[in-house]
Amino acid sequence: MTAVSPLAPKTIAVPAPLGGVRFATAAAGLRYQGRDDVMLAELAPGTTVAGVFTRSLTASAPVLWCRQALAGGKARLVVVNSGNANAFTGKAGEAAVRRTVETAARLAGCPTGEVFIASTGTIGVPLDDGKITAVLGDTLRRVAADGWERAARATLTTDTYPKLSQAEAVIGGVPVRIAGFCKGAGMIAPDMATMLAYVFTDANVPAPLLQKLLAAGSETSFNSITVDSDTSTSDSLMLFATGAAGNAPPVNLAELRGFRKALDRVLRDLALMVVRDGEGARKLVEISVLGAASRRAAKRIGMAIANSPLVKTAVAGEDANWGRIVMAVGKAGEKADRDRLAIRIGGVLVACDGQVAPGYDETPVTRHMQGDEIRFEVDVGVGRGRATVWTCDLTHGYIDINGSYRT
Amino acid sequence: MTAVSPLAPKTIAVPAPLGGVRFATAAAGLRYQGRDDVMLAELAPGTTVAGVFTRSLTASAPVLWCRQALAGGKARLVVVNSGNANAFTGKAGEAAVRRTVETAARLAGCPTGEVFIASTGTIGVPLDDGKITAVLGDTLRRVAADGWERAARATLTTDTYPKLSQAEAVIGGVPVRIAGFCKGAGMIAPDMATMLAYVFTDANVPAPLLQKLLAAGSETSFNSITVDSDTSTSDSLMLFATGAAGNAPPVNLAELRGFRKALDRVLRDLALMVVRDGEGARKLVEISVLGAASRRAAKRIGMAIANSPLVKTAVAGEDANWGRIVMAVGKAGEKADRDRLAIRIGGVLVACDGQVAPGYDETPVTRHMQGDEIRFEVDVGVGRGRATVWTCDLTHGYIDINGSYRT
How many structural domains comprise chain A? Predict the structure, then answer.
């Protein structure tokens, strides 16, 4: 692991044990030496599950399995390995998934449809699943309620720090908790930018409601971030509700308002930690687009700015080059009024009415660009659609990491 | 100007004088010191014109002018400045265009609608057009038929070498010539990746036919290249036919088959020179996609591969990481059959039937990746659509150039 990102949170807030969830990890030696690369989460019987997965048309074998298993709505085991993505591994990859799921289900005494798996790492290299199944039995015997940080760490690849978050809420007068972790630093883009994220709650929530909450929450969190515009074949965001908190099962979303807010906070928190660990990132960039024809248009314009290599290198160079923001708005393909476009950087009006702002003084803007959290606000002047997306700068570090990942 | 790209042609083949076209350049001092930054091309009376421009919704003032002037179908003067793009300069930018065009038309004794202009450089900085109009009269007096290389050089910004190309053809038994130059190195993407390109022929071709040829030719040349996925606000590709060769005017495209081939060759030649001068480029990458649902789908898949930062950094690292090609195919959003996908690198079959090729030996592929012209061939296994696109690698040089462009 390289040096920790300068944008990393100063402390790691590890969640306390959460009813119905236990973890264990193991070193299966798939790719990495001297670290755990298998994460196992054991869930209480009756745990409900929701999931959102990559829209890649070359999705990995584990993603195909999880999509199918999700129909059952129940989960007992999660098995994640790092170091090998088991993606583009053909029929052999599907067989590896089947063997892993079958072994896990037998050991846990549950149906195979309650086992969810994920693999992250190099694409196209056959997965030696025997190394995983060989350690599953022992790993399952060692599960413990306080294994959050080790669990998060076992899933990491090019990440420089583990990403954990938690929140509390109340459902029908009963306090419940939400906690989760995720991994991801590169190949992060719209349409499920997660890589892998696992969120757990001790609340009792039926699977269909859980799925609705997760789908909505992913839009303003993991689907609103980008590191490099590349979409992984393995992106998986899953939410498990163990019911250990003992609340009466809610029957509609209205009863889950507070829970939803807490969940959205955890999802956004985790998503931003991914951007903060963006490969080579030195600056976090928040881009708010307003005045667009619709929310969708605003998001598309925001993503065009967030994915522009010229905008991202300007941020890396601490250069308040707002002309590149104009360029990115223009290429987004969404309605924008050139003569009403307004741009603020760090709150300072830089451009308005189709040109540089009257009396524009670059000094405070340059100072803002020298910080490590950059804010762009872009009003495209045609409607009321708004969206906020996040990205990071494009630096020499990104080239270093990705020009030599496999070798 | 930084060191010349290692991918640059070894010699600059400067076109011989071409009937009906004369050039002159001047140093107006817009941004650069000690070099010419204004290019003027004077065309014989009756010259016809065609043009293809950026699809950016924040197109520059000169682009808006050219689109409008194109309706007349005739051209007498072309005025191009480098150092300032006159883009996002509001009403002031439009006024600058108007003054420049009016001055040029008065000096040349032609209607304003026969003057075409372009500006390239920094966006959002008001253009001091007085500096341009001040030199126009003297520059026009100095036009000469042998000014090709100086003309090409005056339009450059971050380019490391001038880009010129030429070809011959026959129309109705009469030999004709085509020659042109272009500039562009960054902010190069689909939907007119040109930045600026000016192509001239001494053939006699009516404007409507010229426009058809140029629109078609731009698709397989400038619209099939990408350096960084960013689209300029100023992209302009123009073709001028002076008629000096004296051929009888053709009445349909069938009479222009040979001319079209020659034109397509010049356009592709110029477009590839842009990729070869991609900011920081050390390798040229040709990506052929076949087996797609349509030509359009093939091109979209090709561009997804060509724009992927992970693919481009892998090329920079000389890493035959074909898994990233699979990833890019998956994110393109076009139909692909994971289990029939086949990938060749440098002609060697790397993957087929949804997994690594049987007995795959990386040695020859790694050797190919160490060269400076890389070839990917991707069969997505669903249809007969084909397309070829070109890009370059993403290196530390790109970050260096764009992290400090303005400062």
Answer: 2
